[in-house]
Each structure stands twice: as structure tokens, then as C-alpha cells.
Write a structure and sequence with these properties.
Protein name: IS200/IS605 family transposase
Strand order of the largest sheet: 1-3-2
Largest sheet: 3 strands, antiparallel
Organism: Stenomitos frigidus AS-A4
CATH superfamily: Transposase IS200-like
Pfam families: Y1_Tnp (PF01797)
Strand content: 5-15%
CATH topology: Alpha-Beta Plaits
Domain Transposase IS200-like: 2-117
């Protein structure tokens, strides 16, 4: 999955990324899913890639809704002063999300792709 910040504002700093990772790991666990990899693009600082092994009983859209709603609320609360110049309404994530199945790619290939976010080739 890929989540993009509202208006593509460059607000995912290293500190925000670390807090998102902690929150996302916890939330995935509560939904019986496993967060295998999580990395923000620290070049543009406006989106984050998640590699999730989703439990078959939870719908993809429901999982995205849970992850985005709770992380948005917590990040806005914890980084209120930092986000104030960017958001005047209670937003953090853009509407929607991108979800792609891994197809035949191995987990190692997917993890390397996600880890390389924000670095030039």
C-alpha cells in the first residue's frame, strides 16, 4: 500500500516516519496482519510505502481506512506545531490509497524496492 500526504506536502520527516512505523506495526498486529516493511520517500517526504501481509478476513479497504484514520489522528496530535503551517483543517493523508498485489515478485525484491525509497539510483 502507498499513502500520500494531503496536498502532497513534504511533512514526513525522519521523526514522523519513525512514529508512523510504530503506529502502523501496532495497528497491523491488532488487525491480525503483519507489517513486513515500511519506508517513507524521504526525498519528496510526501508518501509512504507499506508491505503488509494481510489476514484474509480483513478487507483491504477496511485495513487502509483503519491505518489512515488512526495514524492521521495521532500524527496530527503529536506533531501539531510542526504541521500547523501545512494544514489548517484536520488532515494528514490524501483521500484514497494505492494497493498493489505482489504477484510473482519475491518478498526480498519488494523489501529492497521499499527500502530504496528516497534514494537516487
Amino acid at each position: 500500500m502507498v499513502f500520500v500526504t494531503k496536498y502532497r506536502h513534504p511533512v514526513i520527516t525522519v521523526e514522523v516516519e519513525q512514529r508512523l512505523l510504530t503506529l502502523l506495526q501496532k495497528l497491523c498486529t491488532t488487525q491480525r496482519c503483519e507489517l513486513l516493511e515500511c519506508k517513507a520517500d524521504l526525498g519528496t517526504k510526501d508518501h509512504i510505502h507499506l508491505l503488509i501481509e494481510r489476514h484474509p478476513t480483513i478487507a483491504e479497504a477496511k485495513l487502509a481506512e483503519i491505518l489512515k484514520t488512526i495514524t492521521s489522528r495521532e500524527i496530527r496530535k503529536e506533531f501539531k506545531d510542526f504541521l500547523k503551517p501545512y494544514y489548517w483543517k484536520p488532515f494528514f493523508w490524501k483521500r484514497g490509497y494505492c494497493a498493489v498485489s505482489s504477484g510473482g515478485a519475491s518478498l526480498d525484491v519488494l523489501k529492497k524496492y521499499i527500502e530504496a525509497q528516497g534514494y537516487s539510483d
